[in-house]
Amino acid sequence: MARHEVVLIPGDGIGLETSAAMQDVVAASGAQVDWVIAKAGVAVIDEFGTPLPDETIEAIKQHKVAIKGPVTTPVGTGFRSVNVALRKTLDLYVNLRPVVSIPGAGGRYDDVDLVVVRENTEDLYAGIEFEEGTEEARELIAFVDRMGKGVIREDSGVSIKPISITATRNITEFAFNYAERNGRSKVTAVHKANIMKHSDGLFLREAREVAAHHPQTAFDDKIVDAFCMNMVMDPSQFDVIVFPNLYGDIASDLAAGLVGGLGIAPGANIGRDYAVFEAVHGSAPDIAGKNLANPTAEILSAAMMLDHLGEQSAANRIRQAIRAVYAKGEFLTGDIRRTEGQAKAAASCTEFTAAVVREL
Length: 360
Ligand code: NAI
Fold this sequence. Notes:
Blueprint: E1 3-9, H1 15-29, E2 32-37, H2 45-48, H3 54-63, E3 65-68, H4 82-89, E4 94-100, E5 113-119, E6 129-130, H5 135-146, E7 158-159, H6 165-181, E8 186-191, H7 200-212, E9 218-223, H8 224-233, E10 240-243, H9 245-259, E11 268-270, E12 275-278, H10 296-308, H11 312-328, H12 349-359
Parallel strand pairs: 1-2, 1-3, 3-12, 5-10, 8-9, 8-10
Antiparallel strand pairs: 4-5, 4-11, 6-7, 11-12
Helix pairs in contact: 1-10, 1-12, 6-7, 8-9, 10-11, 11-12
The structure holds 1,4-dihydronicotinamide adenine dinucleotide.
């Protein structure tokens, strides 16, 4: 079996606990992974002057593959999100989030099997913002007024929503190629093209164009509000779903909620040259440091990483071990909704992890 060097950014908050759990499980899977530990987050600003040190970027560029625990982004401060910066710097233009029911994990449905493909580089997430009351905000508001594009109240903050042909083609092409490589039959594009004609309208138009070059895969589209209702009522109608950045962000938490919550939702940020795997959830400050976190999402993200490294059998062993622990229902963390026959007492992060390792 090949040895792989993988960059590990443990993150902060529950990231420290879930990353340690993930390392134990990968070791028990038989995969030969050497971890190259790299730093990011609020805690490293004093040491490096930035939450995302150059040496962390360089390590990912050197080793090509990384897995990352969640990193806290303080709300409403000048602090730049490490996640957004990482995605931009490494051009990780795809956010891939498979959502699959795990029997015993407390999901609302037993038959969810869909994939969220979220554009990762633009939209309202691009971070192009104008603070309320600043000279630049005033200039922008005056410009919009001069162009006859509508009235923005003077006391407004403004965020810009760019959606490009380039990024839309890249993400929808990825969605169709992913569907074809993984035996999936349909791609759905989600948008609000009826209202935002020049951003979401462009997204839909380009998605249709790309779909026309993939006649073997079915294609349809949904307006985002109707999509949310359809997802809650019958998620089995969806297969691969492609979104602009913000809707994809919201919809992946919604989808995670249908199968048991953020504790079990894995993900990956993928570009042409690099891939960074990470759970959907954040650093969960409310439970950090208490050994209460559910490490399933980060462990399943590691299974996606092993697939990417060509270690499918180790990845499958990990997924089976996780399913076995949920099916037995003896060691479930507190975030999981209990059903009949499952232990009511919450297992700790380390007890859950030990149960997965025993299965392996
Ligand atoms: P969150 O995902 O951290 O937490 C939301 C709720 O879900 C909390 O009640 C939390 O306890 C629970 N939860 C999340 N993951 C869990 C797990 N593995 N096991 C058990 N319970 C879990 O979202 P929130 O509170 O909005 O964000 C907290 C911080 O995380 C913020 O600073 C945010 O910016 C950051 N964040 C970082 C991400 C990343 O690094 N990829 C992604 C999302 C948020």
